[in-house]
Recover the amino acids of this structure.
């Protein structure tokens, strides 16, 4: 996918921490809904292949906890969710609702490589009790760890710009 200049173009202020975390919370709810549907689909296929009794026995024994195939499906859906939205328009649905956008400092859309780096480092940011997010409070450019690692920025769009 080619990198393109995102619209509206301009010099916009950096996004604040509260707005960024609010958008992340919104996206988490959307992603959880998608993952629930995928998990139900996976369990439906499992029941179709092995039968309801076997699936019930597996569930009772905790057999689906740590299921490698289900874990892979969750990982692929999560990665796909963010890569799709971030590389296309620089916004997930939560980011659209909160009028923020992810972009390169030049105002262009980010690459898949940048999106993957950002996704991996953001997980490390969460695992460090959110320190990677709070880092933006001390950074002069208001960047989090994943902004710095991926060479991206999150900006706040003016009112009336819900769509790119």
């Amino acid at each position: 996918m080619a990198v393109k200049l995102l619209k509206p173009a301009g010099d916009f202020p950096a996004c604040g921490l509260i707005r960024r975390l609010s958008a992340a919370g919104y996206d988490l709810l959307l992603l959880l809904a998608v993952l629930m549907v995928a998990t139900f689909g996976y369990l439906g296929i499992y029941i179709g292949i092995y039968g309801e009794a076997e699936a019930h026995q597996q569930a009772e024994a905790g057999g689906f906890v740590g299921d490698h195939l289900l874990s892979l499906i969750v990982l692929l859906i999560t990665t796909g969710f963010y890569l799709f939205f971030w590389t296309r328009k620089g916004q997930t649905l939560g980011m659209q609702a909160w009028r923020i956008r992810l972009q390169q400092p030049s105002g262009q859309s980010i690459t898949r490589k940048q999106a993957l780096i950002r996704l991996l480092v953001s997980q490390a940011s969460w695992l460090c009790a959110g320190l990677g997010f709070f880092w933006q409070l001390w950074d002069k450019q208001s960047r989090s760890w994943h902004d710095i690692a991926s060479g991206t920025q999150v900006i706040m769009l003016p009112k009336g710009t819900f769509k790119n």
User: Anything to note?
Assistant: Residues 42 and 70 are 7 Å apart (CA to CA). The first strand starts at residue 100 and ends at 103.
